[in-house]
Amino acid sequence: MAYVGNDFDSIDPGEQDIFAIDFSQRLSAGETLQSGGVWTCDIIFGTDDSPGAHLIGGASLSGGVTSQMVGAMLQNCKYRLTATVTTSTGRTLQAYSHVQCLPYK
Asked: Domain segments of the chain: what residues?
């Protein structure tokens, strides 16, 4: 599974935002993504018994980019958001990044 190279911007508790992962550079000539894919949310720091509950609705697709609405994350927790997509050639690709939920400033 590939790390996208940088973490997402932090999110405030109670906030909702759309996060996106771009697979364009990993696609061969003529290869496309078949759908927005499947996203997962896992806790990597802090305490959250239901990290998957922060995924809102289904994933979306625009070209080689998949996106997912995420919200209601818990303060002082850090999460790993992973996208899994299938390409027109049958390949399954995964990539992830992290997002931290920080207190309101």
From this structure: 2-101
